[in-house]
Amino acid sequence: MEHQDWKEVKWDKRAKRSSSETKKEFMKRELRAGRASTVKRYNGNGMNNLEKKMDKADEEGNLRHKKISMSVAKRISQKRLEKKMSQVELAKALYLPVNTIKEYEKPNSKVIPSAKVLNKIEKILGRVRD
């Protein structure tokens, strides 16, 4: 009876760049092979966009999350009360969860409404921005 040599087999689907191949050649080869995910991974010195943004924020020292201004939060609640609407009614009109409306009306909340949502709020309630 023969002895079988069992070797560990590893499966790695990610492509490796050979030492003689330039980055540009590697990217072309991967695109031709239809592996766009590899190209995304090698997006600019091996860094993805989030890492680039974080590095930029570190350099600028701007690591704080923006907050909704107190005046906008106050105006949303004032205009809603002028229209005699509850938070639930406003949320239904905007197709948003009620908790989101509550967060928008909280002063110094970390939830920031997008421009699209603010436009919808202004269509229903009237002008709320500075």
The DSSP helix count reads 7
Q: Tell me the major beta sheet.
A: none
CATH arch. level architecture of the largest domain: Orthogonal Bundle
CATH topology of the largest domain: 434 Repressor (Amino-terminal Domain)
Helix content percent band: 40-55%
Low-confidence stretches: none
Question: What do you see in this structure?
Answer:
The protein is mostly helical and 130 residues long. The protein folds into two domains: 23-60, no CATH class; 70-125, Orthogonal Bundle (434 Repressor (Amino-terminal Domain)). Helices cover 52% and strands 0% of the residues. It has helices at 23-32, 36-41, 49-60, 70-82, 87-94, 98-105, 115-125.
Q: Topology, pairings included?
A:
Layout: H1 23-32, H2 36-41, H3 49-60, H4 70-82, H5 87-94, H6 98-105, H7 115-125
Helix pairs in contact: 5-6
Question: Key features?
Answer:
130 residues; 7 helices; mainly alpha
Summarize the entry for a quick read.
Helix content is 52%, strand content 0%. By secondary structure, the chain is mainly alpha-helical.
